[in-house]
Amino acid sequence: MTVTAATGLSDLRSFLHGLPGVDKVGVEARAAALATRSVKTTSKASAIDLAIRMVDLTTLEGADTPGKVRALCAKGIRPDPADPSCPPVAAICVYPAMAPVAAAALAGSGVHLASVATAFPSGQAPLEVRLADTREAVAAGADEIDMVISRGAFLAGDYRRVFEEIVAVKEAAGAAHLKVILETGELATYDNVRRASWLAMLAGADFIKTSTGKVAVNATLPVTLVMLEAVRDFRDRHGRQVGVKPAGGIKTTKDAIKYLVMINETVGDDWLHPDWFRFGASSLLNDLLMQRTKLTTGHYAGPDYFTLD
After folding, report:
1. Phi, then psi, of 12 in degrees rounded to 5
2. What is the DSSP string of 267-300?
3. Which run of H or E residues covers position 161?
4. Count of alpha carbons within 13 angstroms of residue 25, beta-carbon side
5. Could you give a single Gene Ontology term from the biological process aspect (predicted)?
6. Please, which of 107, 234, 259, 278 could form a disulfide with 245 given CB 3.0 to 4.6 Å?
7. Domain for residue 7, yes or no?
8. pLDDT tens-digit map of 26-73
């Protein structure tokens, strides 16, 4: 199925509801089985460095200040000041109002700037407001936009509205990559997660993202497994690769490695790269750095060795 904003929308509902149903017991059992696997000690250092390179280091608080954002950018560029071999993170993620500050701090670093435009986290603002938010963030230097879908519209079955809004934000974002946040914790079923994933990809998403991190249930392994299967099947059908970003609740190196194993076992090496998989996190980075130091020096750094974000 090929859907555009101008044609094919009448078939969208039948297509989405014609997707194979998700076996809840099966997907949860598969995710649990994958979570028991580990990487060899000899591969752990590479896995940690890859996970660091996949982090979208994030601050999304009402109390964010320019100083806090500049400090976060410095950390993203050089996560461990004592070890220049430590790789930078993938991106710094901030509110649109902080995009100019982050853009100046990241200039020339190669670290991407992501901005949560479109009335994050609720998405409950008129479309023109969300589009203006997106354009302003891009003009300020954001090269990635993390948008939220209208979950109320999706759950009411108004797929046309959700589709057209994603298309409009994609157009407003221009050359910036678009990550579409499904807020899976509010979608109720795995079938809805699969439908929302396909809807976002058909509308032009470059990434599909689990969560805002602002609701009770954020990223989970079973939900991410459903989304990984969706991007795999979408590429098989349409020839276009789409990234995946679990966000919220991923706090430890052990957690991150579970996701890396899941990627390898579900979609393969093609997605084991920051261009195609990200962790939306704030506290994860410090644990990765502590584990990295342990592998390098043989002992853990103190919990206050790395800056708190």
Report:
1. -65, -45
2. T-GGGSSTTTB-EEESSHHHHHHHHHHHHHHSSP
3. helix 159-173
4. 0
5. deoxyribonucleotide catabolic process
6. 278
7. no
8. 999 999 999 998 787 778 999 999 999 999 999 999 999 999 999 999
Catalytic residue flag (residue 209): yes
Q: What Å distances lie between residue 218 and 164, 183, 209, 250, CA to CA?
A: 25, 7, 10, 9
**Residue 146 annotated among the catalytic residues of the structure:** yes
**What is the mean pLDDT of the segment spanning 203-210?**
98
Instruction: Report whether 117 contacts 137 (CB < 8 A).
Output: yes
Give the whole-angstrom CA distance, residue 270 versus residue 264.
Answer: 9
Q: Does any domain span residue 59?
A: yes
Domain boundaries, position 105: 15-295
Reduced to 3 states, what is the DSSP secondary structure of residue 177? strand
Q: Which residues contact 25 (CB under 8 A, 6 or more apart)?
A: none
Give yes or no for a contact between 119 and 127, defined as CB atoms under 8 angstroms apart.
no
Chain centre distance of CA 38 = 23
- The residue written with tokens 């280091």 in the block is 57
Q: Please report whether residue 253 resides in a domain.
A: yes
Three-state helix/strand/coil letters over 41-95: HHHHHHHHHHHHHCEEEECCCCCCCHHHHHHHHHHHHCCCCCCCCCCCCCEEEEC
Query: What is the CATH number for 231?
Result: 3.20.20.70
Is there a catalytic annotation at residue 170?
Answer: no
Q: Which of 130-134, 165-169, 210-214, 238-242 has the lowest mean pLDDT?
A: 210-214
Supply the pLDDT for residue 167.
Answer: 97
Closest C-alpha to 99, from 113, 86, 89: 113
Domain count, the chain: 1
